[in-house]
UniProtKB/TrEMBL annotation:
GO terms for molecular function: hydro-lyase activity. This is Enoyl-CoA hydratase/isomerase family protein. It comes from Caldalkalibacillus thermarum (strain TA2.A1). Signal peptide: none annotated. GO terms for biological process: fatty acid beta-oxidation. Keywords: Lyase. InterPro entries: ClpP/crotonase-like_dom_sf, Enoyl-CoA_hyd/isom_CS, Enoyl-CoA_hydra/iso, Enoyl-CoA_hydra_C. Belongs to the enoyl-CoA hydratase/isomerase family. It comes from the Bacteria.
């Protein structure tokens, strides 16, 4: 059996992970999600890696959770399995995670893309939460993240009808960072990842955490977090290097310390 997830390569500081179940449009089974989290943990521990791209293939980023795997599962089994434990970790990884999306990003595939820090999408990508058509609902953040991006009225329509959310709409509502022609998706994701990989990794991680605070907490709580995170930057060598490089009119070399 081929690997459900492939560490395609590490291009300098950027690692590329590819979902690899093309025969089922990269449907996300439990083994694939476990493997994804294991790979992300390994990349987090690898100091040479500073940004990660998660992608699929031209036809699908992922067409959802694996319906065949779920079809006969009982309530007790799904509750006790607690499969979302691994999903919840994804936005908590310290390194920036960019989804490069072509084709379908449906159901769990849409939720996985939305769990990443940024999404670069092809103009032909199709997002959406079609779970309603299976008699269920999103379970990995679809109702929450889509509502935060689209607003209640429009999220309700997409969630209650299950209709596809075209990439252009996803871009216009701020769910997608950048929309590009099919053939440029990976190039654009790599360019963004390499740019961020040149920054101070500690500052990058703290900014990520602060942005998630903005989504999840009242403003003053987020502001307090931001202030303390700002102070924390003053404990890093990268802060000294960044400010010194500015004064010496040269490009800073950030070491992640
Ligand atoms: C299992 C899937 C699958 C899925 C596609 N396949 N999506 N298998 N789980 N989610 C399989 C098909 O059965 C088929 O296998 C092969 O992939 C190709 O798919 P086709 O349907 O033949 O392709 P196409 O006609 O191009 O249609 C593409 C599609 C359609 C519109 C994306 O496949 C589709 O509607 N898929 C299901 C989308 C969905 O409902 N996702 C939500 C899942 S629930 P064979 O063997 O026939 O070739 C979910 C819950 C999330 O995600 C909860 C949190 C994790």
């Amino acid at each position: 059996m081929s690997q459900p997830l492939v560490l395609k390569n590490i291009e300098g500081p950027v690692a590329i992970l590819r979902l690899n179940r093309p025969q089922v449009l990269n449907a996300l089974n439990l083994a694939l999600m476990d493997e994804l989290v294991d790979q992300l943990k390994a990349l987090q521990d690898d100091d040479s890696v500073r940004a990660i791209i998660l992608t699929g293939n031209e036809k699908a980023f992922a067409a959802g959770a694996d319906i065949d795997e779920m079809a006969d599962v009982s309530l007790a089994e799904i509750k006790m399995k607690n499969q979302f434990l691994v999903w919840d970790i994804i936005p908590r990884f310290t390194k920036p995670l960019i989804a490069a999306v072509q084709g379908y990003a449906l159901g769990g595939g849409c939720e996985l893309a939305m769990s990443c820090d940024m999404i670069i999408a092809s103009e032909n990508a199709v997002f959406g939460q079609p779970e309603i058509n299976l008699g269920v609902m999103p379970g990995a953040g679809g109702t929450q993240r889509l509502t935060k991006a689209l607003g209640k009225a429009r999220a309700m329509e997409y969630l209650l009808t299950g209709k596809p959310l075209p990439a252009r709409v996803a871009y216009e509502c701020g769910l997608v960072t950048k929309l590009v022609p099919d053939e440029l998706v990976m190039q654009e994701a790599l360019s963004l990842a390499h740019e961020i990989a040149q920054k101070s990794p500690v500052a990058v991680t703290l900014i990520k955490e602060a942005v998630y605070k903005a989504l999840d907490t009242p403003t003053q709580v987020g502001m307090d977090f931001e202030r303390n995170a700002f102070y924390m930057c003053f404990g890093t060598e990268d802060r000294v290097e960044g400010m010194k490089a500015f004064q010496e009119k040269r490009t800073p070399q950030f070491k992640g310390r």
